[in-house]
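Thread: Newbie trying to understand structure tokens

Hi all, I'm a second-year student working on a class project, and my supervisor (Dr. K.) asked me to get a predicted structure for one chain before our next meeting. I've only ever worked with sequences, so writing a 3D structure as a token string is new to me. If someone could post the tokens and maybe explain what I'm looking at, I'd be very grateful. Here's the chain:
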Amino acid sequence: MTAVAKEATQAQALATEMPSGRTTGWWGMILFVTTEATFFAAALGSYFYIRFQSGQWPPPGIEDPKLTKVLFMTALLLPSSLPVMWAERGIRKGQRWRLRAGLAITLVLGLAFLGMQVWEYSEDLKKHTFTTDAYSSLFYGITTFHGFHVAVGLLMVGWLLAASLRGSFGYRRHERVRLTAIYWHFVDVVWVAIFLSLYLSPRL
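---
Reply by user tm_fold:
Sure, no problem. This is what the structure looks like when written as tokens:
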């Protein structure tokens, strides 16, 4: 074998020639969250369109959304991205304990968020329901759809946690952790938009 052939077949040279870039799963997740972001953008756009067409918002007989519970909900959900990030970076280094701890913390925070949302609904539904008016339909529709996304994210996190306890992931095999992290960050970003639009803007 010539010197050129030997140089071309060395491990370093072969690694250089390997395909680089994002995985198919990464692009699939980005496409999915982009599609879902478009839906939320359209829903929030409809909310503001109807609001600006109305004389009073919320309509007469409906109080402005109370902030006490939703501030606790926000304090639970937004920081939950940090343990996911910490877990992902940990498994990249082969630290399974960080993956398990980070996922467990995220799972607890997410479940607490959903519990607070159910509590909020239990009080709000006594005053107005999905069919009371356009405001109620939009409010419940947007927040419920987001809650559904949180629930899906928790299923993904729970599955990852269960798989990690069986030793399924390592520093060379953690793509599913990465994809779940992208989805969970998306859920958090959408909540910020919902919080500002549905809870804070009526008070401005």
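A couple of things are worth pointing out once you decode it. Residues 134-165 form the longest helix (32 residues). Residues 1-19 have pLDDT under 50 and may be disordered. Feel free to ask follow-ups in this thread.
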